[in-house]
Design goal:
- It is a single chain.
- With about 270 residues, this protein is mainly β.
- The chain is about 15% helix and about 40% strand.
- It has a domain of about 190 residues.
Length: about 270
C-alpha cells in the first residue's frame, strides 16, 4: 500500500474511534438524564397481593410473667411421699391407710383397690401420699406409717329383712377375726377387730381404727348397724334405715392378710 494511503487509513480509524466514544458518551448521558427527570414509581401491592401480617410496633415492651407462669423460687416444695410395698400373695383387693405416731388413722389412701390401680415398680407396687388427711388438710411434719390389708374373696349373702339379734343389751359393735399369716412378712397369725361403718354411700366392713375393707350395701339412709360372729369364718351384719332392718352374711372373713409399708418422715 502506498504511504499516502496508509496515512489516510490511520487518520480515518482514529476519527471513527473518536466518533464511537462520543456517541456512546452521549447515549449514557441521555439515559441518566431521563432517569433523573422521571423515576419509575414503585408499584403498590394490591389487596390480594398484600400478606395479612399485623405491623410490628417500633417498641415492644417486655411483659413480666404472672405467678402462674413463673412460680417463685421460694415456693414451698411438694410434700408428696412415695410409698412402695410388696402385696401379700393372695388374690383380692387392697385397703391402705396412713397412721401418725400415735397409730391413729389420719388418711384412707386406698379403699378396696384393685392391683392395677397402683403403679408397678421394679420390685413392688407404688403409690403416693400428698401429706393431707381425709379432710384435705395439710398434716404437720413428723413421722408416719403406711399399713394395709389385702382382702380375699369374701362370700356375701343378702338374707333379707330380719329382726335384730336376740341379745339382752345392745348388739355387739365389733368381732375378732384371725387373719391369715403373710409369708412375705414372716408375721404371726394376728387378730383384728372388725366393725360395721356407714355413711351417705352405704355400709361397709372396716377395722376398729376406721380403715374400710369391704363394701356391704349402697343403702344411703342408715341410722345404725351392728355385727355378730356366726362362726370362725363368718359374720352376720344388720343395718337399720329407720323403717326396716336388713341382714347380711359374710363368709371367708379369715381370708385377710396384713402388710406394712414401714415408717417415713413428712417434711
Amino acid at each position: 500500500m502506498p504511504i499516502a494511503d496508509t496515512e489516510l487509513f490511520r487518520v480515518l480509524a482514529t476519527y471513527c474511534r473518536s466518533c464511537r466514544l462520543s456517541i456512546l458518551g452521549s447515549l449514557l448521558f441521555a439515559v441518566a438524564a431521563v432517569a433523573q427527570e422521571s423515576p419509575a414509581p414503585t408499584p403498590s401491592p394490591t389487596s390480594e397481593e398484600s400478606p395479612s401480617v399485623s405491623p410490628i410496633p417500633e417498641e415492644s415492651p417486655s411483659v413480666s410473667p404472672t405467678p402462674e407462669q413463673s412460680p417463685s423460687p421460694s415456693a414451698a416444695p411438694s410434700r408428696r411421699v412415695r410409698i412402695s410395698f410388696l402385696p401379700p400373695p393372695l388374690e383380692g383387693t387392697i385397703s391402705l391407710g396412713i397412721y401418725d405416731g400415735n397409730r391413729t388413722l389420719v388418711r384412707v389412701l386406698h379403699q378396696q383397690a384393685e392391683l392395677n390401680e397402683f403403679t408397678i415398680g421394679a420390685d413392688a407396687l407404688v403409690t403416693e401420699w400428698d401429706g393431707k388427711n381425709d379432710d384435705d388438710e395439710d398434716l404437720p411434719a413428723g413421722k408416719y406409717r403406711a399399713h394395709g390389708y389385702l382382702v380375699g374373696q369374701f362370700k356375701f349373702e343378702d338374707i333379707g329383712e330380719a329382726t335384730p339379734p336376740p341379745v339382752e343389751s345392745e348388739p355387739p359393735t365389733s368381732v375378732k377375726v384371725r387373719l391369715m399369716p403373710n409369708p412375705l412378712a414372716n408375721n404371726k397369725r394376728s387378730i383384728i377387730d372388725l366393725v360395721v361403718g356407714f355413711d351417705s354411700d352405704g355400709s361397709y366392713l372396716k377395722t376398729i381404727d376406721d380403715l374400710p375393707l369391704f363394701m356391704l350395701s349402697e343403702a344411703p339412709n342408715l341410722v345404725r348397724a351392728f355385727i355378730a360372729k356366726k362362726g370362725e369364718k363368718s359374720v352376720d351384719v344388720w343395718q337399720d334405715d329407720g323403717t326396716s332392718i336388713r341382714q347380711f352374711r359374710i363368709s371367708n372373713v379369715d381370708k385377710i392378710m396384713a402388710f406394712d409399708c414401714g415408717e417415713f418422715e413428712l417434711k
